[in-house]
Write a structure and sequence with these properties.
The complex is a heterodimer of chains A (300) and B (229).
Chain A: H1 3-16, H2 18-55, E1 58-62, H3 64-69, H4 76-86, E2 91-97, H5 99-109, H6 114-119, E3 128-133, H7 139-146, E4 152-157, H8 159-201, H9 203-211, H10 216-253, H11 255-259, H12 268-297
Antiparallel strand pairs in A: 1-3, 1-4, 2-3
Chain B: E1 2-9, E2 19-26, E3 31-35, H1 42-49, E4 57-62, E5 65-66, H2 75-81, E6 82-86, H3 97-106, H4 112-125, H5 141-153, E7 159-163, H6 171-186, E8 190-195, H7 198-204, E9 207-212, E10 215-220
Parallel strand pairs in B: 3-8, 3-9, 6-7, 7-8
Antiparallel strand pairs in B: 1-2, 1-4, 4-5, 9-10
Helix pairs in contact in B: 3-4, 3-5, 4-5, 5-6
The chains are: A alpha+beta (300), B alpha/beta (229).
């Protein structure tokens, strides 16, 4: 097979249908851009999840009796609970927080609201054992094992609040993917259309190729490569779009959120780790669409 | 070289078969005309030989290949052994004369040095040696058909099929094209030409196979157009 001949044909094809080619590239770029955006959201959410769950604790609130009378967790009930928690598999650390320590933390958190501090009394706050789990998903088994034990008031999982937050974030991610999917469908149809048009404008060439005994591959390869070139160029534009989006939008609008470490910063490394996926998806999807179109519509 | 055995071809859109139990053989190196009115089945027969269509019944053999049983993958093998020429030339308007001829070799992956050697030779054979760099629209109809013949012949096919090659040309030019086809036939290439052109068939006095309503109604070794009906 002569590469120069095939590439010559590809260039001719792209040039002849320049408007369709541009439309095909732009639609592919937009749908791949959205896909890339979705993937970046997923990465960010994953990192946020890791980050946040590492910080959340399972809290075993202790009974009023222990809270009032055992400031160092030396009573047998409290010490036993602590010992049992420490020896439970999957528990990384257990820290006792006395009623005084809890009140001190409360004061620290709400120091901006003096009226609230005036109303609060240490008696309102229970002492607790704050448990750090290696795997936050182990919470239900801990809760089951310790709820109702002597000295335990209730067991709560801070992760529950996070799960609600992440449900909302995952909804955002799914919405991005749905839009990307619809765009991808439009891109597929455009690629298919462009290839049909390209084959139609070159029907004399294709006819001559068939009748002179060119193989199916030789006849179809230029069309297939046209689609792949458009797919890859679309992917590159999508990557450029993501970089511009980061610099011009994300970095500015979310600067405060990044500073406060609420959301992990989106780096160039993130975009460039998504980039190869976009290029491969662009090329493979274009090639497959091209192949199917040629099989179905173009007689060889 | 070409053999049809009890070949029938029906199309779903027509009640009458396009070809009806046709048995014909054309020997290696022979020159034969395929004549008959429009709709008699000439083009269908040529399409079967090129495996553009499959017969509904019977077997088709071309250049030692059983065309009706050929796998998709081997169709190019058949078409590399069969050249074809059409009434409408089918030249590529954006390529020069020599590029048009070279195209037939490029698409089957012939090496460049072979193409550079063979194309001028075949252009000389068809009498276009000075016009290699012209574009098709700069040529007369007769010259364009010569380019088409050069393209069909450049890979030295065993069989040359011509479907009304003189249909768009006046009498003198048609005569020149026939001389060219005769010259190609003398190199050993089997030529089968479908035509309406009485004058040409009568002047050449070659084998004539006449089709009528899909059946062979006459097969004469040195026939003329109008006799026998």
């Amino acid at each position: 097979m002569r590469a120069s001949f095939v590439f010559g044909e590809v260039a001719t094809g792209l040039r002849r249908n320049v408007t369709m080619t541009v439309a095909m590239i732009l639609t592919t770029a937009i749908s791949l851009g959205l896909l890339g955006g979705g993937l970046l959201v997923v990465r960010t959410i994953d990192r946020m999840e890791q980050d946040y769950y590492q910080r959340v604790e399972t809290v075993v609130y202790l009974s009023a009796d222990i809270s009032a009378n055992d400031p160092n967790c030396t009573s047998s009930t409290c010490a036993t609970l602590r010992g049992q928690l420490e020896s439970t598999p999957g528990v990384q650390s257990v820290i006792f927080e006395s009623r005084q320590a809890a009140f001190a933390r409360f004061q620290r958190i709400f120091q901006g609201q003096p009226e609230l501090l005036q109303l609060a009394r240490p008696e309102a706050l229970p002492a607790s054992l704050r448990v750090q789990l290696a795997d936050p998903a182990r919470f239900p088994s801990i809760a089951k094992a310790f709820t109702g034990r002597p000295g335990v008031d209730r067991v709560t999982d801070q992760g529950e609040y996070l799960r609600q937050l992440f449900r909302a974030l995952n909804g955002l991610r799914n919405a991005t993917f749905v839009v990307a999917l619809i765009q991808a469908l439009a891109a597929l149809l455009l690629i298919s259309n462009t290839i049909q048009l390209s084959a139609f404008t070159r029907r004399t060439e294709v006819g001559v190729m068939r009748l002179t005994g060119a193989s199916r591959w030789y006849t179809q390869l230029p069309f297939l490569l046209e689609a792949v070139v458009a797919g890859v160029v679309g992917a590159v534009l999508a990557i450029v779009g993501l970089v511009i989006g980061k610099v011009a939008f994300v970095d500015r609008v979310l600067a405060g959120v990044f500073e406060a470490a609420i959301v992990p910063r989106l780096g160039y490394a993130d975009i460039f780790s998504v980039a190869p996926i976009l290029i491969v998806v662009g090329a493979v999807v274009a090639a497959l669409t091209g192949y199917l179109t040629l099989r179905l519509y173009v007689r060889i | 070289m070409i053999r049809l055995e009890h070949v029938s071809k029906s199309y779903r859109t027509s009640t009458r078969p396009a070809l009806d139990d046709v048995t014909v053989e054309v020997e290696k190196g022979e020159f034969a005309f395929l004549i008959g009115p429009s709709g008699s089945g000439k083009s269908t027969l040529l399409r079967l030989l090129l495996r553009e269509e499959l017969p509904s019944k019977g077997d088709v053999y071309v250049a030692d290949l059983n065309v009706s049983k050929l796998s998709q993958r081997r169709i190019p093998q058949l078409r590399q052994r069969v050249g074809c020429v059409f009434q409408d030339f089918r030249l590529l308007g954006n390529k020069t004369v020599s590029e048009n001829v070279a195209f037939a070799l490029e698409v089957i992956g012939k090496p460049r040095h072979t193409i550079r050697k063979v194309v001028p030779e075949v252009l000389e054979l068809v009498g276009l040696e000075g016009k290699a760099d012209r574009m098709p629209h700069e040529l007369s109809g007769g010259e364009q058909q010569r380019v088409a013949i050069a393209r069909a012949f450049v890979n030295r096919p065993l069989v040359l099929l011509a479907d009304e090659p003189t249909g768009n040309l006046d009498r003198d030019i048609s005569h020149e094209i026939m001389l060219l086809l005769e010259r190609i036939n003398r190199t050993g290439t089997t030529v089968l030409m479908a035509t309406h052109d009485h004058a040409i068939v009568d002047s050449m006095r070659r084998r004539v196979v006449e089709l009528h309503l899909g059946q062979v109604v006459r097969d004469e070794s040195r026939g003329v157009y109008g006799v026998g009906r």
